[in-house]
Amino acid sequence: MSSESTGKTREIDIKVRTLAHPSRGELQLDAVLSALSDPIRRQIVSQLADVPGEQACSAFQLPVSKSTSTHHFRVLREAGVIEQHYRGTAILNSLRAADLEAQFPGLLRAVLQVGIKEAPSSATATATAGESQARHPNAKA
Fold first, then answer.
1. Measured between alpha carbons, how far is residue 39 from residues 24, 52, 55, 112 in Å?
2. 3-class SS at 26?
3. How far is 10 from 100, CA to CA, in rounded Å?
4. Burial, 126: exposed, middle or buried (Cβ in 10 Å; 0-12, 13-18, 19+)?
5. For residue 17, what pLDDT band results from cuts at 50, 70 and 90?
6. pLDDT tens per residue, range 23-60
7. Which helix (H) or strand (E) holds 87?
8. CATH architecture designation of domain 17-116
9. Ramachandran class of 133: left when φ > 0, alpha when ψ lies in -120 to 50, beta otherwise
10. pTM
11. Hey, is 92 helix, strand or coil?
12. Which residues sit opposite 70 in a β-bridge?
């Protein structure tokens, strides 16, 4: 017997996976600054600021393991710096620029500008450390 013939309708239980985000009013300066204190997380924020729209986690070429990458995205989301949501099995990320600007005017712009200035020097420092390690393989890093 089908559900139509009995007059009953079937309910479909669809579970939508959601991720918790603070609302605009719940954003805390200490949490945002702490999230932005890490260079990997600033790299994520910079990429999101440079490319409009949403980006999947897999679009980021980060120099860390997948589990560490997941941790960095979670820290940014829980601080309210980014928004994440599922689309199928992928997690899409977007920068909460408007919310950050409303709560902390000029903060994101300042962090991104400093990040641009620091990028060459941090790359140079990493290269220099790598060259030093290559010349002195028994030295501690």
1. 24, 21, 19, 11
2. helix
3. 44
4. exposed
5. confident
6. 999 999 999 999 999 999 999 999 999 988 999 999 99
7. strand 82-87
8. Orthogonal Bundle (1.10)
9. alpha
10. 0.73
11. strand
12. none
Residue 47: C-alpha distances to residues 42, 43, 44, 127 (Å): 9, 6, 5, 22
Instruction: Determine how β-strand 90-95 pairs with β-strand 82-87.
Output: antiparallel
Nearest by Cα to 93 from 82, 79, 104, 80:
82
Distances (CA, A) of 112 to 43, 92, 118: 9, 21, 10
- Inform me whether the pLDDT recorded for 141 exceeds 60: no
Question: DSSP string spanning 25-47?
Answer: GG--HHHHHHHTTSHHHHHHHHH
| Residue in this structure with the two tokens 């309708």, named with its chain if needed | 9
Which tens digit of pLDDT belongs to each residue from 84-122? 999 998 999 999 999 999 999 999 999 999 877 666 544
Judging by beta carbons within 10 Å of its beta carbon (0-12, 13-18, 19+), is residue 112 exposed, middle or buried?
Answer: middle
Instruction: Provide the token pair at 63.
Output: 């120099």
Nearest 5°: CA angle at 115, between 70 and 108?
80
| Domain extent listing, the chain | 17-116
